[in-house]
Amino acid sequence: MFDATFWVGISFLIFVILLVYKKVPFIVNKHLDDKIKEIKKKVNESEKLKNESEKLLSSYQSKYDASKKECDLILENAKKIAEKEAKDITDKFNISLKNREKNLDEKLANYKNQAIKEMQLYATNIAIETTKVVFDKYVGKEKKEELIYSSIKKSINKINS
Q1: What is the pLDDT of residue 81?
Q2: 25, 19 in Cβ contact below 8 A?
Q3: Angle in degrees, CA 25, 30, 33, rounded to 5
Q4: Which tens digit of pLDDT belongs to each residue from 20-65?
């Protein structure tokens, strides 16, 4: 009278009634709800961590940008200082070079004047010696005394005037 299909259907129906009686669907729903809450909590924590990470990233990025600007500023100032120092050193070198040239020109002029004076002195000595020789040879004693006397007189007149 009752075949196997009937008994399978009855068994299935008893199984479903037992499930409902034991509140299995509610337990499954509760368990699924708990899992959903846990997953939502993890998602919220992940979003929170993501937001914090983004804030940290933007903070570090702004710090990096600020330090890069400061570094560029320092490099620019160092370059300006180096250029100024190089210019100052070049100017000092040029001034020193001009002073040395001036000193050398002055020394050269002094040596030239000294050489001219020595040549004049030498020429004067030669002229005096030549005059002595000529006087001794060609001018008599009376004439010498007369020339000496007139020279002394002229010298005294020049000194007095």
Answers
A1: 96
A2: yes
A3: 125
A4: 777 777 888 889 999 999 999 999 999 999 999 999 999 999 999 9
Residue partners of 144: CB distance under 8 A and separation at least 6: 135
Cα separation, 129 vs 121, whole angstroms: 12
Which are the contacts of 76, defined by CB distance < 8 A and separation ≥ 6?
none
Mean pLDDT of 71-96: 95
Q: Which two tokens stand for residue 126?
A: 């030669």
Each residue's pLDDT tens digit, 119-147: 988 888 898 888 878 877 777 777 777 87
Instruction: Tell me the backbone φ, ψ of residue 93, rounded to 5 degrees.
Output: -65, -45
- Compute CA distances 91 → 72, 82, 95, 96, 135, whole Å: 28, 14, 6, 8, 65
Instruction: For residue 45, give every residue at least 6 positions away whose Cβ sits within 8 Å of its Cβ, in sequence order, or none.
Output: none
CA pair distance 119, 117, nearest whole angstrom? 5
The whole-angstrom separation of Cα 139 and Cα 125 is 20
More confident residue, 137 or 69: 69
